[in-house]
């Protein structure tokens, strides 16, 4: 009995390690700048994300930008200054989502925004290591006919942080498969 348990645990660890290695190798890269979508969504939490979203908006790659997970104390003109954008761009075309506190609530906030605006395509901007889980959460909340274009912002993460993110991804993938959204 103990031998069988050891084999099961060893197999589970091997599957996790191989899955993690494959997950790291397959992390997405920056999106194609030529693709135009109805909206751009930036999930806050890492460097370069908001800058990338604003750059895409300035380049005319979408009609509007949602920055999801913005602190309640941040004002649009303050955020515009941090990314060296004119406040007028934020007044006309940027929505600040203030309800999200984690990836799942980012997806909830984004799905409401997409549905309210009637968008059929969005560009999702987040860190490369965060993209698989962010996309999974968002896909679970949007209609199947909404196109999600991944646009990953490169960034370094320590191996321990990467393994935690992979574990979160696997657990959420299982939850989504089981219908626990």
What does it look like?
The chain has seven helices and five strands; from the N terminus they run H-E-H-E-H-H-E-H-E-H-E-H. It has helices spanning 2-25, 49-58, 76-82, 87-93, 103-117, 131-141, 159-177, and strands spanning 39-43, 64-68, 94-97, 121-127, 147-153. A five-stranded parallel β-sheet has the order 3-2-1-4-5, with helices on both faces. Helix 3 (76-82) packs across helix 4 (87-93), helix 5 crosses helix 6 and helix 6 runs parallel beside helix 7 (159-177).
Please give a handful of descriptors for the protein shown.
alpha/beta; 15% strand; 51% helix; 5-stranded parallel sheet; 181 residues
Provide a compact summary of the structure.
The protein is built from seven helices and five strands; from the N terminus they run αβαβααβαβαβα. With 181 residues, it is α/β, with parallel strands linked by helices. α5 (103-117) packs across α6 (131-141) and α6 packs parallel to α7 (159-177).
List the helices and strands and how they pair.
Layout: H1 2-25, E1 39-43, H2 49-58, E2 64-68, H3 76-82, H4 87-93, E3 94-97, H5 103-117, E4 121-127, H6 131-141, E5 147-153, H7 159-177
Parallel strand pairs: 1-2, 1-4, 2-3, 4-5
Helix pairs in contact: 3-4, 5-6, 6-7
Amino-to-carboxy terminus distance = 36 Å
Strand order of the largest sheet: 3-2-1-4-5
Are there runs of 5+ residues with pLDDT below 50, and where? none
User: Would you tell me the overall average pLDDT?
Assistant: 93
Largest sheet: 5 strands, parallel
Q: Sum up the overall morphology in one term.
A: elongated
Question: What is the gyration radius calculated from CA atoms?
Answer: 18 Å
Strand-residue proportion:
15-25%
Structural class: alpha/beta
Q: Quick one: how many beta strands? A: 5
- Helicity, as a percent range: 40-55%
DSSP helix count?
7
Order of helices and strands: HEHEHHEHEHEH
């Amino acid at each position: 009995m103990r031998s069988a348990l050891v084999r099961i645990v060893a197999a589970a660890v091997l599957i996790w390690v191989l899955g993690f290695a494959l997950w790291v190798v397959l992390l997405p890269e920056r999106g194609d700048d030529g693709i135009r979508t109805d909206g751009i969504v930036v999930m806050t939490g890492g460097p370069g994300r908001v800058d990338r979203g604003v750059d895409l908006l300035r380049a005319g790659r979408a009609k509007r930008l949602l920055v999801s997970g913005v602190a309640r104390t941040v004002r649009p003109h303050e955020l515009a200054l941090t990314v060296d954008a004119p406040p007028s761009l934020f007044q006309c075309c940027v929505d600040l989502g203030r309800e999200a506190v984690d990836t799942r609530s980012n997806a909830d906030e984004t799905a409401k925004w997409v549905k309210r605006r009637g968008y059929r395509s969005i560009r999702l901007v987040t860190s490369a290591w965060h993209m698989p889980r962010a996309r999974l959460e968002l896909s679970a909340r949007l209609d199947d006919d909404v196109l999600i274009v991944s646009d990953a912002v490169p960034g370094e993460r320590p191996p321990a942080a990467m393994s935690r993110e992979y574990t979160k991804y696997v657990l959420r993938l299982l939850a989504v498969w089981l219908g626990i959204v």
